[in-house]
Amino acid sequence: MNKSRTEMLSASDLEAALRHIGETRYHHLHPFQLLLQEGRLSRAQVQAWALNRYYYQSNIPVKDSIILARLGSVELRREWRQRILDHDGSETERGGIEKWIALTDGVGLDRDYVMSGKGILAGTRFAVDAYVHFVRDRTLLEAIASSLTELFSPNVIGVRNKGMLAHYDFISQETLAYFDKRPVQAKRDSDFALNYCLEHADTREKQDAVMDALRFKCQVLWAQLDALHHAYVDPALTPPDAWRPGEAETGREAA
Ligand SMILES: O=C(O)c1cc(C(=O)O)c2c(n1)C(=O)C(=O)c1cc(C(=O)O)[nH]c1-2
Predict the structure, then answer these.
(1) Is the Oxidoreductase keyword given for this protein (predicted)?
(2) 109 forms bridges with which residues in the sheet?
(3) Per the domain annotation, does 249 fall within a domain?
(4) Is residue 251 part of a domain?
(5) Is the distance from the beta carbon of residue 60 to the nearest atom of ligand 1 less than 6 Å?
(6) Is residue 244 part of a domain?
(7) CA of 182, closest atom in ligand 1
(8) Are 209 and 145 in contact (CB under 8 A)?
(9) Fewer Cβ close by (within 10 Å): the C or N end of the chain?
(10) In ligand 1, which atom is closest to the CA atom of 86?
(11) Are 39 and 168 in contact (CB under 8 A)?
(12) From CA 7, how far away is CA 13, in angstroms rounded?
């Protein structure tokens, strides 16, 4: 794909290369994502997905706070802080983390258990922690570029929500309310991050670093679904300390 490792790409070629990375490596292609959206998972397997993803959700404002602290101007901080508000909410508005808890409530998991982080898979924790450490340790440009997976999330969210609503009787529009605002927020955030990267990647090395950051982030998402697939598709492979079907259930309506 590389013309030469030293030649600078035009902004439009860099954007095309980034979009190609998403088309070929984003988690919309993951087998567990396909099982989820095609209605081929049990309620317990959907619970495992919701439980583990809470750890990702709850760390998003942590990683955005790290980026915020590294931004060098009022204008950039003003832009970025909106992401933290979206997830942490305010006195008057529910944030994404609270809405994710509504989702885990909706699938019948005990919220204290979910919020405790107990029972999540090591693979989930390692992947999410790697994302937080990446934005702390790499350049600001790489940290911002690692959020570019959000260019592709409106599409996967649409397909996943539609599939889940169609196939699972325990999923309602209300359970999935977390996702109502995400496509608009993701478009706003990823447009900003993309423009930032196109403008600031002013050498071929920086362009390569931006592409590598997006590849890394695709791996963060992919590894989380790998962990779920490994642990919950074959019950024999569930690790000893991981959540097990039936555990931390809130009262199910009498069946
Ligand atoms: O449902 C999804 O498939 C999906 C994907 C992603 C992503 O691409 O990282 C995010 C989200 N959702 C999401 O809800 C979210 O808040 C979010 C923040 C970020 C980020 O890297 O800053 N990605 C994502």
Answers:
(1) yes
(2) 249
(3) no
(4) no
(5) yes
(6) no
(7) 14
(8) yes
(9) C
(10) 16
(11) yes
(12) 12
